[in-house]
Write a structure and sequence with these properties.
- With 341 residues, the chain is of the alpha+beta class.
- The chain has nine helices and 18 strands.
- Helix 2 packs across helix 3, helix 2 packs parallel to helix 4 and helix 3 crosses helix 4.
- The chain starts with a strand and ends in a 5-residue tail after the last strand.
């Protein structure tokens, strides 16, 4: 039996059917990310596990026990929200001690546990500060420390980094993952950011309109998307109909499924390479867009526009409207289903 089990979870708000028969297992010590666009049901599923939303159909098990209707306060689950939700009139140390006081922990032990949690998130010197005196990143680390200080069975993180600037966000991703591994705490992380999910996760559960679209490791979901939605959401794949793919490569392949192609698998050059086991075709550069160390080209090929990524290097930049040759290994043209089975 898995450490956490969701069995046929259904949840509606009025006529809006948010969760549609979710079956999902999470192993002990695993960090699972619920990934998907706004409104796909990821936060609702998290709140059902926490006991903050009532399940209308189905069951939830934690460590072998049915907790579907257990009071939220008795589930031994720690949760970190996007808004931090710290008590503004309490110091950092008092915020952390709040949950321990409810558990009626002895003062000396409480002081020890608070100190250890603050050390873990690198905020020992901020114990007597108030939330209003801290930066957003520091407040989020306090919220994390408050969630773990009570030693919960499960840690839930509901888009905790979405309000933080990009550089600090990357640092906190690494910190959270390090702490999670150190504590070996079973964690479910919610995000709509595919890059964040790739960095943080042991496994990713991709949700779409209340259903699981695909479940797997970051590598398997990135390299082997099963549906058009998965290919479009993770990896910025070019997704096209069979007839569009035929038009792209200039030959008929008799494919019956949509075709997904990662931008970075398309090589660009001034001349034809005549490579084996590759499709090669000529196109015209429509535009280029810098994306950090990657330059993303939009290229028109026989009326089909596709994206191709190259490293951003000054000696290999192709001008707009210039003609280029594209080469694509046949093995990188993936068949994908319309929807999840």
């Amino acid at each position: 039996m898995a450490y956490i089990e969701f069995k046929n979870i259904n949840k509606s708000f009025g006529s809006n059917h948010v969760l549609k028969g979710i079956d999902l297992n999470v192993e002990k010590g695993e960090l699972l990310t619920l990934l998907g666009p706004s409104g796909c049901g990821k936060s609702t599923l998290l709140r059902c596990l926490a006991g903050l939303e009532e399940v209308q159909e189905g069951s939830i098990y934690l460590d072998g026990k049915d907790i579907t209707h257990t009071d939220a306060r008795l589930r031994q689950i720690g949760m970190v929200f996007q808004q931090y939700s710290l008590f503004p009139n309490m110091t950092v140390a008092q915020n952390l001690a709040f949950g321990l006081k409810i558990k009626k922990m002895a003062k000396e032990e409480m002081k020890k546990e608070v100190s250890a949690a603050l050390k873990m998130v690198g905020l020992e010197e901020k114990a007597n500060a108030y939330p209003g005196q801290l930066s957003g990143g520091q407040q989020q680390r306090v919220a994390l420390a408050r969630a773990i200080v009570t030693k919960p069975k499960v840690l839930l993180l509901d888009e905790p980094l979405s309000a933080i600037d990009a550089k600090l966000r990357k640092n906190l991703q690494i910190e959270i993952r390090k702490i999670q591994k150190e504590l070996n705490i079973t964690t479910i992380f919610v995000t709509h950011d595919q890059d964040e999910a790739m960095v943080m996760s042991d496994r990713i559960c991709l949700l779409n309109e209340g259903r699981i679209e695909q479940l797997g490791t970051p590598v398997s979901i990135y390299t082997e998307p099963k549906t058009k939605f998965a290919a479009g959401f993770i990896g910025h794949y070019n997704v096209m109909k069979p007839e569009e793919f035929d038009k792209l490569i200039g030959e008929k392949c008799n494919r019956t499924h949509a075709v997904a192609i990662r931008p970075e698998t398309i090589a660009i050059s001034k001349e034809k390479k005549n490579l084996e086991n590759c499709y090669e075709f000529k196109g015209k550069v429509v535009e280029s867009l810098p994306r950090g160390n990657v330059l993303r080209y939009t290229i028109d090929v026989n009326g089909i526009e596709i994206s191709a990524d190259t490293l951003f290097r000054s000696f290999s930049i192709f001008e707009d409207q210039s003609e280029v040759w594209l080469s694509l290994e046949k093995r990188n043209c993936l068949d994908v289903e319309e929807t999840a089975v």
